Amino acid sequence: MSVRIRRMVPEDYDAAYALWEQTVGMRLTALNNTYGGIAKLIAQNPQTCLVATTDGPASGDEVRSSDGSRIVGTALGAVDGRKGYLYHVAVDERWRGQGLGSSLISRVCDVFKADGIITISLLTTADNVGGQQFWESQGWRRRPDVVYFTRDLE
Q1: 3-state secondary structure 65-129
Q2: What confidence category does residue 120 fall into, taking pLDDT thresholds of 50, 70 and 90?
Q3: Which of 20, 32, 72, 125 lies deepest, with the highest CB count within 10 Å?
Q4: Is 80 exceeded by the pLDDT of residue 63?
Q5: With contact defined as beta carbons under 8 Å apart, do 85 and 120 qualify?
Q6: What pLDDT is recorded for position 60?
Q7: Helix, strand or coil, per DSSP, at residue 37
Q8: Cα 43 vs. chain centroid, distance in angstroms?
Q9: Burial of 51 (0-12, 13-18, 19+ CB in 10 A)
Q10: CA 150 from chain center: how many Å?
Q11: Alpha-carbon gap, residue 1 to 69, rounded angstroms
Q12: Which residues have a Cβ under 8 Å from the Cβ of 33 and sit 6 or more positions away?
């Protein structure tokens, strides 16, 4: 079964969110992960919000993407004008170990580099050991000098 990587569109939200919910270590309450929040991120970063899809058979009550395919991976890239960020990098457990996450990340990084972005950051939770091991295996460095703060405006 082949996998295709394409730009994410807001209509992919339900299927992507279903993947994120089943991904260990994904904290969906930490950011604005509503349909509107993700649609805004996509609108502001259309080249770097990606999904990996397959046309494989549906299983049970599986949520399908906007084109009827099955979303098996996501990577949402965003920039602030000087730095890039990765959000919601997730690969369906059944598709891990095949380079799909690396391909998604590489595609986002290629766009960042072409746009003159030379530094990229991401966050993972302290208890997501598997995620931390993945990022370190991909050449990402841990920042021991940073303490991360957050504040909701609502």
Answers
A1: CCCCCEEEEEEEEEECCCCEEEEEEEECHHHCCCCHHHHHHHHHHHHHHHCCCCCEEECCCCCCH
A2: very high
A3: 72
A4: no
A5: yes
A6: 58
A7: helix
A8: 15
A9: buried
A10: 20
A11: 12
A12: 17, 20
From residue 108, alpha-carbon distances to 6, 63, 71, 84, 117 in Å are: 11, 25, 17, 9, 11
Taken as a whole, the chain contains a residue count of 154
- The count of other CB atoms within 10 Å of the CB of residue 116 is 9
CA dihedral 61, 62, 66, 70 (to 10 degrees): -150
Instruction: Return the structure tokens found at 15.
Output: 């299927």
Residue 147 CA to residue 29 CA, distance in Å, equals 19
